[in-house]
Each structure stands twice: as structure tokens, then as C-alpha cells.
UniProtKB/TrEMBL annotation, chain A:
Regions crossing the membrane: 6-29, 41-62, 82-103, 151-171
Record-linked InterPro entries: FraC
UniProt key word Transmembrane: yes
Record-given protein name: Filament integrity protein fraC
Alphabetic keyword roster: Membrane, Transmembrane, Transmembrane helix
The keyword DNA damage belongs to this UniProt entry's keyword annotation: no
Region annotated Disordered, chain positions: 122-141
NCBIfam families cross-referenced by the UniProt entry: filament_FraC (NF045624)
TrEMBL record, chain B:
Keywords noted in UniProt: Membrane, Transmembrane, Transmembrane helix
InterPro entries: Uncharacterised_alr2393
Transmembrane segments: 47-65, 77-96, 108-127, 148-168
Keyword set includes Phosphoprotein: no
Protein name (database record): DUF5357 domain-containing protein
Keyword match Membrane: yes
Length: 175, 346
């Protein structure tokens, strides 16, 4: 039953991608939201780990239910790195991107609740400029695009990390 | 010598009754008692007592790894691995072993990281009541909460890797021929001892052997005329061989990916059997294995039952009466041949 075929490469790639994604997303979040580096890394790490786990769980749930044709294609992809239906893969990648974004949004909201962080993004601008209270009135009239919008920041972070992972995969495939 | 005994004694003798040594001794005592109970099938007594043994062992180990000196030694790059040792014991106790009790079950492997995380996080939920010195439940500080979340999530990812390993093992059981071509290109798995293409993993060989058996059964020792008729009607006759050959193989999902084909390639009756792999392949081309069987006639004496012992003539008279019979001689299966287009004819 047990063979010496180990998913070592999958583990290495996953570690690389998780570290890469956390680093990039933390950077993007910090730039967009202007909040501390530590909390950004915490957000990015928690969100990416949750996405990874949920992704695996969906894989484990769906894999036994796949029709034989798809299952054989999946095994061919895992064992021989052969993509038999690129269109399906692109559609899947798109679905994964959207679901990962939504899941990260929910995760970060949840994390705030667990850690008792109250709306850090809305308060941070005030905290950054506590010595300029007279600008408070003006801050409310800031253009929408300049307001730190957390959902948008997470979307950008997600896009950046997915791009990086896609780039690494492309280099691996074509180099 | 005395010093050594003293040291052992010091190690064995608990400083006070409430200590990890006491628990380990209780565990050993339970194991011995369990061994003495009757081995009759329900084994209720044995199970209860050995459960106590396990619980004492787990608690004793738990206590032991948190001894300050031990805790210092069990650090691996600043990470205290004690909870993972305790977690391993808990998982083996809860989910058991198999394969001759040598390997923990997949459930034990998969649940090991999260259960260890629970063990690891327990101290963060407990504080000491300053007055009574008794343990008290507490909500962890936000920093600790974040740590618990991250450690739990990281461990769950490791659980997923274990589970993925078992998924891959299931695939290899259901689709063993994938291994025949090696996994050098894979982005996911690696063989610890990669050996490239290994035809012995390909079940095409088994399929062709089964087909050979089936063909032999049909032709060997049969009258030549019958053999020739069978060969000339191969198209109608072959499906039966195919069904028989597949029926001889273990029934696993991979069988659908194989096709068996046979054709006569020369007038001297070389029957070529093809086992065609229709699943994904490491190369662009599909591949097939070939086994060539030479079907020839041989002159043999008529079988003894045709001798007329009852007749007054001596049996030797009928000896010149020979008959042509089919013989089947098959070679070994060839190594894989690659097709630029998979054979569609089935």
C-alpha cells in the first residue's frame, strides 16, 4: 500500500508559493493601508494559510467524485505534468482567484474579530496624523480613491501574489 | 558501578508521588496486567486495561517533556517539539496501527499535526490561580491567539500534505501502470529511488500474459483445421479472448485504460498481441506492448483413445495415423513502442 512515491515536490512548491504570497501580500497591504508591518504579515499569513487549507479540503472532497475521464486527466497532470485540457485549467484558475479573494476577505474580517482589532484601517489615518487634528474634517472629504479601502487592498494583494505564482509556474514550464 | 546504579535509581525514583515517573510506572504496570488477561475474543478487560496504560503513558510523557531540563533539550531551532511527541502518542492510541501493527493508520498521520497543536496550545489557555495555586481557564492574549491560529493553520497544511500522500497511494493502487514511465517530469511527486522507465510496473505485461494463456487454451492441441478457422475468423473470435484476459486481471480502475488487440501478421501464423495503453503518458505518444505468438502445426500421434484395443488387430497398426495439431509458442512482451497516434481500432 505504501510506496516510496512522495509528494515532495508538491510540498516544496507549496512552501515556496506560501512564503512568496505572504511576503508580497504583506507588502501590498502595508502600502495600501498604511498600517504596521507586523499586522500586515499576520493578515497575509493567516489568509494564505486558510486559502491553502480550504483549497486542499475542496480537492480531497471533489477528487473521489470525479468521473473517470477527469480523474485520469488529473492523475496525468500530477504524475506527468501533462495538461490535457488547458481551457479547463484556465477556467479553474479564474474560479480559484475569485474564491481566494473572497475567502481572504472573510478570513481577515474574522481574524480582526478574534484578535479584537476594531476597524484598524479607518482609524489608522487619524493615528498617523494625530498632531494635525484640524485636518480631520478634510480627511472625511478625501476623494474615494485615496481612502484606504481594505477590500480593494486585499484584491490588489491577491492579484499581486497570484501573478507572482503564475510567473514562477511559467518560468518552470518554459525555461 | 555504584555511581551508575545511583544515577539510574535517581532517575527511576520519583522525587514525589505526583511525578511523571509514577505515571510511566502505572503505564508499564497496566501493560503487564493487560498481557496477563485472557486472550479470549471480546478482550474487554484487556482493552480497558491497555487503554489505561496508554492514558498513563500519554500523561506521563506529557509531563516528562514539560520538565524544564527536558524542555530545553527538545528544542529544534527554537521550536519546542514536545507537543508533537505527545500528539504522536495520542494519535497512535486513538487511531491505531495497521500493516502488522508497524505503521500508524492514515487517520493517525493526518490528525497528528492538529492534535499536537492542541497539546501545544493548552498552556496558553491555563493560568495559575495566585491564591490556591490551582489551574484556571483563561482566554489567551491577542498575541497568543494570533500564534495559536498560525500554528494551527500551518499544522493543518501539513495534515493536507499527509492526506495528499495517501491520495497518491490510492491512485497508485488503482492505476499502477502510471509508475512504468517514471515521474521525472512531475511537479508534485518524487520517487525516493527514481529508476526511470520500468516496464515491470506496467500491467500491459500481465494483460499480454493473460491473453497468451487464453489463446493457448483455445488453440494448443486442437485440430489444425479448427486452429486455422479460428485464426481466419480472428475478428469475431478475439473479443472473447479480450474478455477472458481482462477477467483474469485484478479488477481495478486502471483496466479501462488498457486495450487488447490481436492480429495475424504472417502466413506462417504469427499472432501479434498488442496491449495498448490509452491513458496519459509521460511522452506525447501513446504506447503499446507487443507479444508475438507463433502458431504452428505439429504432427502428433493420434490420441490414445483412438486406439482400438478391443479390435483384434494389434494397436501398432494405427500408429501411422497422425494428425496435425496446433502449437502455440509465445515470446516475452516487448518493451513499450510509441505510437504517434493512439490506435483506435479495438
Amino acid at each position: 500500500m505504501f510506496t516510496d512515491v512522495l509528494p515532495l515536490r508538491a510540498i516544496l512548491f507549496q512552501l515556496l508559493f506560501i512564503v512568496l504570497a505572504i511576503a508580497i501580500e504583506a507588502m501590498v497591504l502595508q502600502n495600501y493601508l498604511g498600517i504596521g508591518q507586523k499586522i500586515c504579515i499576520q493578515y497575509a499569513a493567516t489568509a494564505n494559510l486558510v486559502v491553502t487549507i480550504v483549497g486542499w479540503l475542496i480537492f480531497f472532497l471533489v477528487e473521489p467524485l470525479l468521473p473517470v475521464v477527469l480523474k485520469v486527466q488529473l492523475i496525468g497532470y500530477v504524475f506527468y505534468d501533462r495538461i490535457s485540457s488547458p481551457v479547463l485549467l484556465i477556467i479553474l484558475a479564474f474560479i480559484i482567484f475569485i474564491s481566494a479573494f473572497l475567502l481572504k476577505l472573510v478570513t481577515i474580517e474574522g481574524l480582526d474579530r478574534i484578535l479584537d482589532i476594531n476597524q484598524p484601517t479607518r482609524e489608522t489615518p487619524d493615528k498617523i496624523t494625530p498632531n494635525k487634528p484640524r485636518f480631520k474634517g478634510r480627511a472625511q472629504r478625501q476623494p474615494f480613491s485615496e481612502l484606504p479601502n481594505r477590500s480593494l487592498a486585499i484584491l490588489w494583494a491577491n492579484a499581486a501574489s497570484f501573478s507572482a505564482v503564475t510567473f514562477v509556474l511559467a518560468v518552470r514550464t518554459y525555461a | 558501578m555504584k555511581a551508575i546504579f545511583d544515577q539510574i535509581r535517581k532517575l527511576m525514583q520519583p522525587a514525589q508521588w505526583a511525578s511523571w515517573q509514577t505515571l510511566i510506572f502505572l503505564s508499564i504496570f497496566s501493560a503487564l496486567t493487560a498481557a496477563l488477561t485472557s486472550p479470549a475474543p471480546p478482550q474487554i478487560a484487556e482493552r480497558i486495561i491497555s487503554s489505561f496504560g496508554w492514558v498513563f503513558l500519554i500523561l506521563g510523557t506529557w509531563w516528562f517533556v514539560y520538565e524544564p531540563e527536558v524542555k530545553k533539550k527538545l528544542k529544534l531551532y527554537e521550536l519546542f517539539v514536545g507537543p508533537w511527541i505527545v500528539g504522536a502518542l495520542i494519535c497512535v492510541y486513538l487511531f491505531g496501527t495497521w500493516e502488522g501493527r508497524a505503521v500508524p493508520t492514515p487517520t493517525a498521520f493526518v490528525s497528528w499535526p492538529p492534535i499536537s497543536t492542541i497539546v501545544w496550545s493548552v498552556p496558553k489557555f491555563i493560568t495559575t490561580n495566585p491564591k490556591t495555586k490551582s489551574p484556571l481557564y483563561t482566554t489567551p492574549t491577542p498575541a497568543n491567539r494570533q500564534n495559536i491560529i498560525l500554528v494551527l493553520l500551518a499544522n493543518l497544511v501539513i495534515s493536507c500534505w499527509f492526506q495528499f500522500y495517501f491520495v497518491v497511494q490510492n491512485w497508485l493502487v488503482e492505476y499502477p501502470s502510471f509508475r512504468a514511465q517514471g515521474f521525472e517530469q512531475s511537479a508534485f511527486v518524487r520517487e525516493l529511488q527514481p529508476s526511470g522507465q520500468r516496464v515491470e510496473f506496467s500491467r500491459g505485461v500481465d494483460l499480454l500474459d493473460a491473453a497468451e494463456k487464453s489463446v493457448k487454451q483455445r488453440l494448443e492441441g486442437k485440430p489444425w483445421a479448427q486452429v486455422e478457422r479460428w485464426l481466419s475468423e480472428l475478428d469475431q473470435e478475439f473479443p472473447a479472448v479480450r474478455n477472458e484476459a481482462f477477467a483474469q486481471l485484478p479488477q481495478i480502475a486502471e483496466n479501462q485504460l488498457w486495450n487488447l488487440d490481436g492480429r495475424v501478421v504472417s502466413d506462417a501464423y504469427d499472432l501479434e498481441l498488442h496491449g495498448i495503453w490509452q491513458g496519459p503518458s509521460a511522452r506525447t505518444d501513446a504506447y503499446f506492448l507487443t507479444k508475438t505468438c507463433r502458431i504452428a502445426q505439429s504432427q502428433k500421434a493420434a490420441p490414445p483413445q483412438q486406439l482400438q484395443f478391443s479390435s483384434p488387430a494389434p494397436p501398432a497398426v494405427s500408429l501411422p495415423q497422425t494428425q496435425a495439431f496446433g502449437t502455440v509458442q509465445c515470446g516475452a512482451a516487448s518493451s513499450p513502442d510509441f505510437l504517434s497516434t493512439p490506435e483506435t481500432d479495438g
